[in-house]
Structures are given as structure tokens and as C-alpha cells.
Amino acid sequence: MGPVEVRVPRLTCLVSERDDLSLLPALADAGVDGFQVRAKSLDGRALTALVERVVGAVRPEGAMVLVNDRLDVALAGGADGVHLGRVDVPVAAARRIAPDLVVGATCRTRAEVESAARDGASYAGFGPVFATASKEGLPDPLGPAAVSAAAGVLPLVAIGGIDAARVAAVVAAGAHGVAVIGGIWRQPDPVSAAKEIASQLGG
To answer: Which InterPro entries does the record associate with it (predicted)?
Structure first.
């Protein structure tokens, strides 16, 4: 089964229950066309409620919502897709269960991207490209050259230490888009930061 052709966001902002959710419509208006809900401390009920809130805030602006790890919550909360890591539901199983969802897969090599494509992934979340403080225990950063080596199989969404200053390098390396946490939420003005990143993407 090959990859399913779908719209893949170019600028994804990861969202948790600790972020200022009142900014979501403004972030979408600033050019964030994808929001990935990642809130590992929440139970299924609370996570579903969070997903529903994010969907309600950003879908009117035309943005997509994906859920990290939890295919069941993506379906229950009315999200557009799910992003699956190495220990989550396999991509092929998720594709069988939810043929219409956007399904992303975490990848670090071209071989992993090719495997995800065979299993029906819509895109590959590729990283960490640069060092990041947003997640504990990550492997060493891959660098833009690894993006180039993996490009051309699935749309690559680069993640890990991405801010406005680094967008051009990963796009030049072949990334379709970027996923951002600290580059938006840890800035003095998250909406301005998102706008600047979107402008670097041509958004």
C-alpha cells in the first residue's frame, strides 16, 4: 500500500494543555496550517476534550488538526489525522482503521521513510534536525544533510530546534514543511514568531 495523497501542513505547531489556547485562532490566521495536539499527561477523556477545543478554534481558519500518538482520540475528537511514533499503533494498522485520516510517521532515515510510505503514511515527521529542549531523551540532531538524503519519498516535516532562522535551510534541503514548539510558544510574541516562520515558508 503506497502513501495516500493528502494535504500536509507546511507549518505545524505542537499544542499541549499548558499552552495559551486563546492564541490558536490568531496562530492559524498567522499562517499555521496544522496543529498537532501532544499532551502525554492527559487521559483519553481530557485529551479528547482538548482536541475538540483545538478543532473548534482552528478549523474555521482552514487549519488541520492532528493528534500525537492516539489514533482513538484522533477519531473520537474529530481530528484530521494522527502522528505516530515508533512505539505507537503501526502505520499500516492505522491506515486500515482510518483510511481517510492523515497519518504521519516519525522517521530518522530514508529507509524508515520508505517503509512508512509502503505502509500508507501521508508524510514523515523527520528529526530532530537540530538540538531541541522540547523533548527529553532524543538522539543526536540529524542536520539538514539528513533531510536531503531522505527527501523525495514522502513529504518531510522537519522537527527539532526549528525557528525562523533555520526554516530556509531545511526547506532548501528538501523538507515540505516544519513542525515547531519552542520556536512559537517560547517566544515573547508567539503569533509574530509564527508569522515570521510562515513567511520563511512562503506562507
So the answer is: Aldolase_TIM (IPR013785), ThiamineP_synth_sf (IPR036206), ThiamineP_synth_TenI (IPR022998), TMP_synthase (IPR034291)
Q: Is 39 annotated as a binding residue?
A: yes
Annotated binding residue at 160?
no
Residue 36 marked as a ligand binder = yes
Cβ proximity of 66 and 43 under 8 Å:
no
Grid coordinates given for 97: 482503521
133 annotated to bind ligand:
yes
Percentage, residues of the chain above pLDDT 70: 94
Could you please report the per-residue DSSP string of 100-165?
Answer: TSEEEEEESSHHHHHHHHHTT-SEEEE--SS--SSSTTPPPP--HHHHHHHTTSS-EEEESS--HH
pLDDT value, residue 142: 95
132 appears as a binding residue in the annotation = yes
The answer on whether 195 is annotated among ligand-binding residues is no
Nearest one of 55, 52, 65, 59 to 9, comparing CA atoms: 65
> Whole-model pTM?
0.94
Three cell numbers written together for 105:
510517521
CA distance 150 to 144: 10
Write the DSSP assignment of 40-57 as a string of letters.
TTS-HHHHHHHHHHHHHH
Is 68 assigned to a binding site? yes
